[in-house]
Amino acid sequence: MTIQLTTLSNGFRILTDHLPHLGTITSGLWVGVGARNERPEINGISHFLEHMIFKGTGSRDALAIALEIENRGGEFNAYTDYDVTAYYTQMAAKHVQVSCEIIGDIVLNSTFPQDEVEKERGVVIQEIGRYADEPEDVAYEALRRTAFEGQALGRPILGPRENVAGFGREHLFDYVARYDPRRMVYVVSGNVDHDTVVRRIGAMFGHLRATDEPFHEPVASRGGAALLKRDAEQVHFMAAFPGVGTEDPGSYALRHLANILGGGMTSRLFQEIREKRGLVYSVYASPLQYVDGGALSFYAGTGPEEAEELVPVFFEELRKVRDGVTAAELGRSKEQLRFSVGKSLESTMRRADRFARTLLRTGEVRSIEQIFARIDAVTPDDVAAMASRVFSGPMAVSAVGVLDRLPPYEAMQGMLEAA
Fold first, then answer.
1. Are the beta carbons of 62 and 54 closer than 8 angstroms?
2. Catalytic one among 38, 50, 306, 317?
């Protein structure tokens, strides 16, 4: 593995991950601007821009863009997250310069045709409706809204319908102007020559100039409950607690805590709640981490009759982990996390995404050895200390379904605090 990084005079970064044994590449632009950088009145614009940026430039319409990629057997995709937006292709390595040129064109020269704005507005509103029909997604959005009340992190990436209905071309031009070169990373992972990419990308992005820093709020975790009654076969129950950021000394202790509690079939929650008691089909824990903070969240899907038994057992497991974890549990978690990292490095897309996001968040490129060292450095005492830290913070809870047997929020707090 050979990683090379070049920083242009304007702060724009170009990273190549040379894998000479591969015949394909992932090539794309990662921008450190996302839903977290939106004020309430433009919530959803990052995602809408992601959709619209494929719809035509001064030299290509939407079909021509698609043909440039697919005539070469490639694929084009994008995603929006709270702290990053990415546009990328996956193609044969010999087409790397075409990939660079297409992505540069759509980011720098999109025209956002009015007819395309109107069509895509309907597509995004349908997407919002699809998520609203999924109870698990509704529970997740309600949990974020409660845990990060009044913050961009608590608002949905897709935005509300009324915002999307009001977005026009002027909003898109204004927002893409926030793509400051200092918050942009172009990454190519695969069989690629670094100097070739630097020449091509540098010629396109080297003229950009710095802009004002985007809107950004510090993470502030809240407590409370969002209990949404709905006639459904399952109760979708979630809880969240304040976490730590990716660069916090306890970052990997939090990841091990999540893994030990709800990371697989041998995790404590899975064994106690599903295997021993048969109360759920699915139960898991997820760390949500940004540079400056985050949360540890949990999900359990259960029946309306089982909710009354599930909740106290769930909180009992959270209380018990504060007393410590075993060396065997932590050893298993380390193996699982190492495997997860190793597996991700077998995909050029996941490699590119990992390198880009780490570089945007920290200014560093980390080797697999550095990541493994952080995974392995955690001790059982570190995990127990992190559990005490996390579960002493404000608790957010959400639930969707028939909630007649779900204990009230105040009772849940007592379950967590019980001796």
1. yes
2. 50
